[in-house]
Amino acid sequence: MIEALYRRLMDFTRDGVYQYRFDDGRILLANQGFVDILDLNCTPEELVGKCLKDVLIYTDKEGSVRQALEHKGEIHGFEYHFKTLKGEDRWVIHDSRIVNDPDTKQRIVEAIVKDITERTKAEQQLAAEEERLRVTLHSIGDGVITTDTTGNIVLINSVAEQLTGWPQEEAMGRPLPEIFQIINEKTRQLCVNPVEKVLQSGTIVGLANHTALIARDGTERSIADSGAPIREPGGNIIGVVLVFRDVTGVKQAEAEHARLQAQLTQAQKMESVGRLAGGVAHDFNNMLMGTMGYADLCRDELPAGHPIRCYLDEITNISWRSANLTRQLLAFARKTIIAPQILDLNNAMSGMLQLLQRLLGENIQMVYLPGANLWPVKLDPSQLDQILTNICVNARDAIDGVGKIIVETATATLDQAYCDDHAGAVPGEYVLLSVSDTGCGMTKDVLANIFEPFFTTKEVGKGTGLGLATVYGIIKQNNGYIDVYSEPGKGTAFKIYMPRFGGEVAKPNVAKIVEAPRGRGETILLVEDEPALLKTFGRCLVSLGYEVLLAANPAEALDIVARHSGVIHLLFTDVIMPGMNGRELAEQLQASKPGLKVLFMSGYTAEGIDEKELLQKSVSFIQKPATRGDIARKVREVLDV
Fold first, then answer.
1. How do residues 248-282 score in pLDDT, each as one tens digit?
2. Which residues, at least 6 apart from 404, have a Cβ–Cβ distance to it below 8 Å?
3. DSSP reduced 3-state for 79
């Protein structure tokens, strides 16, 4: 009865139960569980008498099992791996012992094996997943830190180690705030403990905007970070994972992009305003010239000492003051006709500074600190005067009571690093003109607008807002660079960099005064698209003794020349006109009349005239506005060549 019970139990259990002789491995007894583990197509009875090596393929642990039995006589919980005859892997837990058969005196092994193949495969798969997770965590570009619900660190990946400066062996078990100190970049205050924030929300959260991580060595890095709860299968939160990325480079790039965009916008705005200023000045010049021309004509009709003449003189004076405004506009727009000379800046400024001292008044001390061995620069001396006058007058107005203006010169070399941080600067060698004052200084908002035309902080009637715009235009026209530093209450410093010129310093020319001559009956073809100016110029030229043919545009001028049977001695033409510019008109007329002389006029440098030709005097030019005397001298000069 007991034997039958044992047999039923052996057949019932899924574990393998078997006996074999220790010496030769012959199976003496086996149950169905053992057959199933070996994956054999036979009954337990059919296994009896077979050798273990005939029904399974031992792996590396066969020797270990025999040695343990030989040494201890029994083993418990021994895990090992073998293959079935079909080549499938099996993992088992082995319990066995050696007993002596009283009848045969042989050593018999009684063994029980439990199949743990599925569990082992699951453990191996879990280990593989853990390894993939470990490799992933340490390979991604983000820092990862996990904590338990108390905020103590459980895991920290290699990127987090680098960003925080804490190796994993030191970080494990520490409270998060000890190694993960984050501040708000704007307020410079410590941020809320991210573990607390995640636990309170129970969801994925972005921890903070403008966050900076303070590393162990004090290094500050901008980071983008987020946190999420870790939940067990039942849904309870068992920890927190923090993911953060170093975005320092991204933020720097964004800031640089914003800076460059602002500079581009400012440059575009200044260019647009410059074009507008040039156009306004051109039209205004025409009106001023007409006004002055009519004043001259009226004056000629009145006897000397007539009371109306003083009014006409005042009209002319006001017109010239207005013309100064247009010249400033044109300088800002970089469209003035200039005659640059090779100058030593110290020599060129010495006389001007003496005049400026009288202009600035006794309360202002002007200090001049000339640099030694200055390089020459190429600059129109009148433009240098405009630069000094405008900056120094502004400095005087910024000084309340007694103050000081310091003018310095020096040589300077701008490298690429400096130019990268200063928009508009170009690497090279320069002569530096520095003008600083002890005035009230400027706020950042004011400083951002000082070169815009018509921008002024002075009272109504005290300033036009064109002074610094003129300075800016002159410097840009001469390929220079200007930098300004100012703080409220600390004064202002202008630094002007003019390119070095590799030549000798030119000696100043002494201008000769030429009397205004009259005409000798020559015929002049006058071409001007402004009707009022055409009429005024025509009357002025007639009053000077010339025969005048009037054309309101190039097409009309061509028609007049085609119909005119007499000699035309001079073409006196505006440069900018609709349909055809003055240069093109002159070339077309001179092709049919080779002896025709040409005098161009314009309010600013035009596309049809090469400024190099003007400087070399290969073309004749007069700039608007001009008095009747200027016109008379220039016309006579061209005709007499």
1. 888 888 877 777 777 677 666 666 766 666 666 66
2. 364, 365, 366, 367, 437, 438
3. strand
pTM value is: 0.42
Give the Å distances, CA to CA, from 164 to 159, 226, 247, 308. 9, 16, 14, 88
Residue 368: partners with Cβ closer than 8 Å, 6 or more residues away: 349, 353, 407, 408
User: Coil, helix or strand for 526?
Assistant: strand
Phi, psi of 378 (to 5 degrees): -110, 115
Quote the CA–CA distance of 450 and 460 in Å, as a whole number: 17
CA distance 366 to 350: 12
Task: State yes or no: pLDDT of 549 exceeds 90.
Answer: yes
Q: How many CB atoms lie within 10 A of CB 402?
A: 10
In whole angstroms, what separates CA 614 from the centre of its chain?
40
Residues 226 and 243: their CA atoms lie apart, in Å, by 5
Q: Residue 389 — pLDDT band, cuts 50, 70, 90?
A: confident
Is the per-residue pLDDT at 398 higher than 50? Answer: yes
The span from the CA of 366 to the CA of 462, in Å, is 22
Choose among 213, 230, 72, 256: nearest CA to 151: 230
Distance CA 606, CA 623 (A): 11
Encoding tokens for residue 357? Answer: 């001292």
Joined together, the tokens standing for residue 76 give 């418990």
Helix axes 248-301, 467-477, angle to 10 degrees: 110
Q: Chain-centre distance of CA 306, in angstroms?
A: 66
395 Cβ neighbours under 8 A, 6+ residues apart: 405, 435, 437, 439, 492
110 phi, psi to nearest 5 deg: -105, 125
The dihedral built from the CA positions of residue 594, 597, 602 and 606, taken in this order, carries a sign that is positive
Question: Which residues are paired to 228 by β-bridges?
Answer: 241
Tell me: pLDDT of 312 over 50: yes
> CA 178 to CA 192: how far, in whole Å?
13
Which ranges in 210-344 belong to alpha helices (H)? 248-301, 307-332
Q: Is the peptide bond before 44 cis (omega within 30 degrees of 0)?
A: no
